[in-house]
Design a protein that fits this description.
The structure holds two protein chains of two kinds.
Chain A: E1 2-6, E2 19-25, E3 31-37, E4 46-50, H1 59-65, E5 73-78, E6 92-97, H2 101-113, E7 120-126, H3 135-139, E8 145-151, H4 168-174, E9 183-189, H5 190-202, E10 210-215
Parallel strand pairs in A: 6-7, 6-9, 7-8, 9-10
Antiparallel strand pairs in A: 1-4, 2-3, 2-5
Chain B: E1 25-26, E2 47-51, E3 57-60, H1 61-65, E4 70-77, E5 82-93, H2 94-99, E6 107-112, E7 117-121, E8 131-136, E9 139-140, E10 150-152, E11 165-171
Parallel strand pairs in B: 1-5, 2-11
Antiparallel strand pairs in B: 2-3, 4-5, 5-8, 6-7, 6-11, 8-9, 8-10
């Protein structure tokens, strides 16, 4: 896992939750493109977080090879649905699996930057405490932001948080009742997103209140 | 102008170049992209409709499955950069469906469970280019991949192959559907790399 801060000529700014495309070009002209969620808040230096995939093509380059001053092409921002601009009074429920936390982090940072008081909860599933991205930042949440961790594979000594995959009971404890009409953003693997989204639908959340972003392994 | 990425070699193009459009890579997985929860419509409540023609038409699941079907093997290309070669499907040709209705439309809007829509010129769903598919790899189509039935328009980026499709609305004019209103290209030809607004 690595976070890159990018200096992008002509970048017009983004909305929290959007992504961008990276295009790498090898000597000889071969190109590879991938999409990455933007983890920084609008107006902050542009940041993306890349998870190293063992059989990946672009992620090993971005995680292990690229260094300060290197240049590559960017395209974006992209996407207009999985975004949160800080408008509206409805509470916001963010559910992240692994590196799916990146676009939600942009929303959390945006919320802090604009001084939003929108009640917000983050339910964040990681394999272990060491796998928690943005851990330090999440340990001191802004007012009105509550962070719930679940660690699915291993837990540090004395762990009092959740220690299993997201299930109906956990959602019942963390999510507001549907009557509060929360807006929901879920990002993670397909299986993770389906489990969380199906669980919220079972709690009476209208499907259209739930916005999802799923990643297959895109190397 | 291409900026050379220092130290990047890449794996090189996989798959035959005449089958993998620019900017795509070949995968054996079948990743999923959806904007919301996966709908689960019971088959006894499922219908497929065509609206906007001289008369509205509707088929129940059993009626739909009794229509002549085809086996289709095609390459598919997702705007998120993956391509999957030789995917095999079974379904009803959109030609078969449109033959049943009198119309002079130039465009269709595919309308799906979950509120998803996608727009297509009629010529992109005519003459053996599009199907409503209900089986993948010889098995009933999984809900996460659009089951019970999805549109299949393999010559365009795969968001046009709308999952959970329930009707085609015939139209005189082109209007952007869901992704097309959210930054994605109005037509989506992978060979022209029509990914986003402005391509």
């Amino acid at each position: 896992m690595r976070t890159l801060v990018l200096e992008a000529d002509g970048w017009t700014g983004h909305r929290a939750g959007q992504h961008l495309d990276v295009r790498l070009t090898a000597e000889g002209g071969y190109q590879a493109e991938r999409s990455y969620s933007i983890a920084s808040a609008p107006g902050e230096p542009l940041g993306i977080t890349i998870e190293l995939l063992d059989d990946g093509e672009v992620s090993p380059y971005l995680v292990e090879e690229v260094r300060n001053g290197d240049r590559f092409e960017l395209r974006g921002p992209i996407g207009g649905y999985f975004v949160w601009d800080g408008s509206g009074d409805a509470p916001v429920l963010l559910i992240a699996g692994g590196s799916g936390v990146a676009p939600l982090m942009s929303m959390i940072r945006h919320r802090a930057a604009i001084g939003s008081r929108t009640p917000t909860r983050l339910l964040y599933s990681s394999r272990s405490w060491d796998d928690v991205i943005y851990r330090t930042e999440l340990e001191e949440p802004a007012d009105g932001l509550e962070v719930f961790h679940t660690l699915t594979r291993s837990q540090p000594p004395g762990w009092t948080g959740y220690a299993r995959r997201i299930d109906q009971e956990m959602l019942g404890e963390v999510a507001w009742p549907a009557s509060e009409e929360p807006r929901v953003f879920i990002c993670g693997s397909t299986r993770f997103v389906d489990a969380a989204a199906d669980g919220l639908v079972a709690m009476g959340y209208p499907p259209l209140s739930i916005r999802t972003e799923r990643f297959g392994a895109t190397g | 102008m291409n900026i050379i990425s220092r130290g990047f070699r890449g794996r090189g193009r996989e798959g035959p170049p005449d089958r993998v459009p620019p900017g795509q890579y070949v995968t054996d997985d079948f990743p999923v992209l959806s904007a919301g929860p996966t709908p689960h419509t019971p088959l006894d409540q499922w219908t497929f409709s065509i609206t906007g023609g001289a008369e509205p038409l509707s088929w129940s699941w059993d009626e739909f499955r009794a229509l002549p079907s085809e086996e289709i093997t095609k390459d598919i290309h997702c705007v998120t950069k993956w391509s999957k070669l030789d995917t095999s499907w079974e379904g009803v040709s959109v030609d078969t469906l449109l033959e049943a209705v009198e119309h002079d439309a130039a465009f269709v809007m595919a309308i799906c469970d979950g509120g998803y829509t996608t727009n297509l010129p009629l010529e992109d769903v005519s003459d053996g280019k599009a199907w409503v598919a209900y089986a993948y790899g010889g098995e009933p189509l999984d809900p996460e991949h659009g089951g019970p039935a999805r549109l299949l328009v393999p010559h365009l980026y795969f968001w046009k192959s709308a999952k959970w499709v329930r009707s085609l609305d015939l139209r005189d004019e082109d209007e952007p559907g869901f992704w097309e209103s959210n930054g994605y290209h109005i037509r989506g030809d992978p060979w022209l790399e029509q990914r986003y607004w402005g391509d």
